[in-house]
Write a structure and sequence with these properties.
40% of the residues lie in helices and 12% in strands. By secondary structure, it is an alpha/beta fold.
């Protein structure tokens, strides 16, 4: 669907809408939008928020585009180019927008290829080639190739989101370029549109058509005329991606462009960053997928030793030698998802190394690889570093460690405070013999400017990504310029390349002239003018670029300010400053943020696009369905940042643009765990909901859902009346019309036999009895939430039976008068913060004696129990909240802990059915899913496995709403429901109430809470 302005072509634009659009983007852009909407089938996005979401990439820059166009087919691209050419509007082709130098930002019409143009058109296993769309993601291509025993080996760290078109535009390299080369070495052909609209096929000289041959002749003439200059100024290292590949006729790299020395005109476009042509399709060279890999992780006591050793390690013929420095090690340790993985790479019982090198060997003969791993151990011993190699032949451990390494850049960006590691000299490549001297000298440069660098990446080819920590709100631009000039002198001294992997863009474009000299720079300008005489394709990039330190082009330009806002949650942990040398942060709340830290929390997003991944984890379920930038964690963060800094033309934090961006956020908390920089969109959405509720009120539907705990007590008295909605024809449609509840969706069934009424027959312990049992560590306080207390009583009853069968005294906590307690989750979701705090305070009051006694507080519903460990810590509830959080455990977490301690050992019968587990999003986000598997494996003979899935799509009330029902079902159909249908013989285990409801509605299967599964497997004598 197109954005509100302009409307679809069939509707046209009325005069008022046209005038609003003209005021927003100008009359020319408004006319462009009208033509695109009328003449193409693509999506036309010209509203301020949409343009703002495409104004940034993973760099420090922000340039507002004219508009955004999302084509549905190749014809749409061709038409859009023709319309833009006719109206003299520049065009910028864009993939994932993960460029680190500003390549994918410009004052142009942005064409986003990623939503629809992402197909694999052909794979030829015999020839080992593939033809693909430019919007295809690398990991998705490799998933398709795997069944052929092939892969595309330019394995960039952003492989889960990087598109092949973007990689070609950037001449990407990857961790294993020492073995496979850069992108330019693996592209066989490019079909592309020139700015004049002509579609050409760039490939080997012998296959060129007439127009292509003329271009080749022109470039050859330039190369011949400047041959002496090329030989004098062109860097000889493989990692040189600056400018255009004018040297294809006289190769200068240590690795020639082609194996046989022939010339391929497609290589002229590789690395051109969309300034010469717009890619239609790519023909790629594939490689056999190695059957085996082994890894040796070398720990170094000093960074210098690591750099000096790289030249020796590459003599063993590894496929990769990758650096991880101490800063990255410590930041990985601070991330709950990465800590256990990084620990496997460190030599046990020794001090934390200053650096580690990951040395990989790959091939088909495992025995030979193991021999080379031993050669590595011997070589390291000869380098006086005996005992400093962690041998890692297990490919599962290797994969996990490579994921941490691939996330290295983003891990480094998780540093809180205004100072951040900034990319601008990180791609300088030098010959390996000079690597240690270069890094030592650059470290001295940083020190002179009051900062230090964080290092990682490709030691095998002399390309080390180094990012000095700079404050780009204050003096960062001036320091960046000074450091770049000194770094350039070092690169020249050591005969390296200033741009070695991530391209030129805005931060290195002006250094092309420094690298090549005026004559070759003029030759590059001639190439640009020959292919794009009107300079319509991403103007001002590579040719005639602006200064790298032009602050008007930056995300934090002069005058950047955030609006005053008093948050309802505590964001003070983000409101800090940091020391660029020690990386120590000031105390919470001392950072001077006018929003109390909320803006700084939002600004943690560095736009790397990690949230665009589809292969694993939980984020971002709505983007996986819509593939819209608006519904991406990054897109939401950009919208929020623009709103909080007053850049949405009068719309504040509670405006409609933010509401639309957050509408499909299901609060899964996937970003809390999966986002390397820790952007927590679920918590931000709670803040937004509270602020918007205060400013605009709350809808009746949302108030009813928020009041569910109170309604439940009354509904249990007359369940038949409250259940009429799903029994009487027509009432479901009325509920959709009046309350917005989807008629297709069944509602939870009210019942009279609540847990409160069942409790007297369960032999529950009194307060005194459970406190007494606590002395022997056999007391448990059960927190029964609204859902398991009123809708699925059997889960709470089963939990009591399992605990009692194992000898625990179980006390069910209640409010005064025996009423059920509530965590406040439903009120939080509606933005009713006062109500949420009131319920939280009541819960804390009821649990206070047990908190004081250190008793475990055990819950059943992940979204409720984990609220005590997450949101309670920032709801300003006082000192009792963190004490409760330390004691709050999910049922399976408690049982797993007790089983490890030898206190939980119930008598269970042998399993007769497989157990397939779907994890609740909050379980996965907060690391609480493994205990489910651990506990289920206590059942003798249990066959337990996890259903690899993202969010089930229900997300509390989200899936019940008519406006979201279709998206909810699409989320479920991505992986969960097909997996459930594919396992008809299995017991489906799901701890989340919403998850069980979705499985029942979507697959007509009953899913069970783990408490019920355990209770069903109790031996008869143990169940009584």
């Amino acid at each position: 669907m197109n954005a509100p302005l302009p409307q679809a072509a069939t509707q046209g634009l009325d005069s008022a809408a046209t005038e609003r659009l003209k005021r927003r983007v100008g009359p020319d852009a408004a006319a462009l939008a009208r033509r695109l909407a009328r003449e193409t089938r693509g999506e036309v996005l010209f509203d301020t928020a949409s343009r703002g979401r495409y104004a940034t990439d993973a760099s420090i820059y922000q340039v507002m585009p004219v508009g955004v166009f999302v084509p549905r087919c190749e014809r749409d691209v061709s038409l859009a180019l023709a319309i833009a050419r006719d109206m003299k509007v520049p065009v910028l082709a864009r993939g994932a927008g993960s460029s680190q130098c500003g390549q994918t930002t410009n004052t142009a019409l942005v064409i986003d290829f990623t939503k629809h143009l992402r197909q694999v058109h052909a794979v030829d296993p015999a020839a080992m080639t593939a033809e693909v769309d430019p919007g295809l993601v690398l990991d998705h291509l490799n998933a398709e190739l795997k069944r052929h025993g092939l892969w595309f080996p330019v394995d960039v760290s952003t492989s889960a989101q990087a598109t092949l078109g973007g990689m070609a535009g950037n001449n990407s390299c990857g961790s294993r370029s020492i073995a496979y080369g850069n992108m330019v070495h693996n592209v066989l052909g490019i079909s592309a549109w020139l700015a004049d609209g002509q579609q050409l096929d760039f490939g080997p000289l012998r296959s060129l058509g007439a127009r292509e041959a003329l271009i080749a002749g022109f470039v050859r003439g330039l190369a011949d005329r400047h041959r002496e200059q090329i030989e004098q100024h062109w860097p000889k290292v493989m990692r040189r991606v600056a400018g255009y590949n004018l040297d294809i006729f006289h190769p200068q790299s240590e690795r020639p462009y082609t194996d046989d020395g022939s010339v391929n005109l497609a290589h002229l476009l590789v690395g051109s960053e969309g300034t010469l042509a717009v890619t239609r399709r790519l023909k790629l060279k594939l490689a056999p997928l190695p059957r085996h890999k082994v890894l040796g992780v070398v720990n170094f006591p000093s960074f210098h030793r690591a750099m000096d050793s790289a030249q020796h390690l590459v003599t063993l013929g590894p496929t990769a030698v990758e650096l991880v420095d101490r800063t990255m090690i410590e930041l990985a340790r601070a991330n709950p998802a990465f800590r256990p993985v990084i620990e496997t790479a460190l030599v046990p019982g020794t001090a934390t190394p200053e650096a580690i090198l990951l040395v990989e060997f790959a091939g088909d003969d495992r025995a030979a690889l193991l021999h080379r791993l031993q050669q590595l151990v011997e070589l390291v011993h000869d380098l006086a570093l005996g005992g400093q190699v962690v041998e890692m032949p297990d490919e599962g451990l290797q994969k996990a460690l490579w994921e941490v390494r691939k996330a290295g850049l983003n891990i480094m960006m998780s540093l809180k405070g205004d100072g951040k590691p900034v990319s601008f000299i990180e791609d300088c490549a030098v010959p390996l013999p000079h690597l240690a001297a270069y890094t030592d000298a650059l470290t001295e440069v940083f020190a002179r400017h009051g900062t230090r660098g964080t290092w990682y990446a490709h030691a095998s080819v002399g390309t080390l990504h180094v990012r000095p920590i700079l404050d780009m709100r204050r003096d960062g631009a001036a320091k960046m310029r000074a450091i770049a000039e000194e770094a350039a002198a070092l690169v020249r001294r050591y005969k390296g390349a200033f741009s070695g992997e991530h391209g030129d863009g805005l931060c290195r474009g002006e250094w092309i002239r420094w690298q090549f000299g005026p004559a070759l720079t003029e030759a590059l300008r001639e190439i640009k003018h020959h292919l794009d005489p009107a300079h319509l394709l991403s103007p001002g990039r590579i040719v005639d670029p602006p200064r790298m330190d032009d602050t008007s082009l930056m995300r934090f330009p002069p005058g950047y300010r955030t609006i005053p806002l008093t948050p309802v949650l505590d964001w003070s942990a983000w409101d800090v400053q940091n020391d660029p040398v020690t990386e120590q942060t000031t105390s919470p709340g001392s950072g001077g943020d006018s929003t109390g830290g909320l803006a700084k929390a939002v600004e943690m997003c560095n736009n790397n696009g990690h949230c665009r991944k589809f292969d694993a984890g939980t984020m971002c379920p709505s983007f996986r369905v819509t593939r819209d930038e608006q519904h991406l964690t990054r897109g939401r963060a950009n919208t929020l940042r623009l709103a909080l800094s007053g850049q949405l033309e009068g719309e504040g934090f509670t405006g409609d643009a933010v509401a639309q961006a957050l509408e499909l956020c299901v609060g899964c908390k996937g970003c809390k765990r999966d986002c390397p920089t820790g952007v927590d969109m679920a918590r931000i959405k709670i803040e937004f909901a509270a602020q918007r509720a205060a400013a605009r009120g709350v809808a009746l539907k949302d108030r009813l859902i928020a009041r569910l705990p109170e309604i439940a007590r009354w509904a249990s008295r007359w369940p038949g009346l409250f259940n009429l909605r799903d029994r009487v024809p027509g009432l479901a449609l009325l509920s959709e019309r009046w309350l917005g509840l989807a008629a297709q969706r069944s509602l939870p069934r009210w019942r009279r036999d609540t847990f409160e009424r069942a409790a007297p027959a369960l032999a529950l312990a009194t307060r005194e009895q459970v406190l007494t049992a606590a002395r022997q560590q056999m007391g448990v306080v059960l927190f029964v939430d609204t859902f398991n207390g009123h809708f699925e009583t059997e889960n709470a009853v089963a939990a009591v039976q399992v605990l009692q069968a194992a000898g625990y005294a179980v006390h069910a906590a209640t409010a005064p008068g025996g009423r059920a307690l509530c965590c406040g989750r439903t009120a939080l979701a509606a933005g009713l913060m006062d109500d949420a705090r009131a319920r939280a305070t009541q819960l804390l009051d009821a649990l206070e004696p047990f908190i004081d006694a250190g008793l475990p507080i055990v819950g059943l519903e992940p979204s409720c129990l984990l609220t005590l460990r997450d949101e309670y810590l920032v709801m300003k509830l006082g000192e009792r909240a963190p004490r409760l959080a330390a004691l709050a455990l999910l049922f399976e977490e408690f049982l797993a802990r007790e089983a490890r301690a030898g206190r939980f050992a119930p008598s269970l019968r042998v399993a007769t059915q497989p157990l397939r587990v779907h994890g609740h999003c909050h379980q996965k986000a907060l690391g609480a899913l493994p205990p489910v598997l651990e506990v289920l494996k206590l059942i003798p003979g249990a066959d337990v496995s996890v259903i690899e899935s993202s969010c089930c799509g229900m997300a509390g009330a989200f899936g019940f709403e008519a406006a979201h029902h279709a998206v909810s079902m699409q989320m479920a159909e991505l992986s969960l429901l097909p997996a459930v249908r594919a396992a008809p013989e299995a017991i489906i285990v799901a701890d989340g109430t919403s998850c069980r409801h979705q499985i029942a509605d979507g697959a007509a299967r009953e899913a069970l809470h783990v408490a019920r599964v355990l209770a069903d497997h109790l031996q008869p004598h143990a169940a009584h």
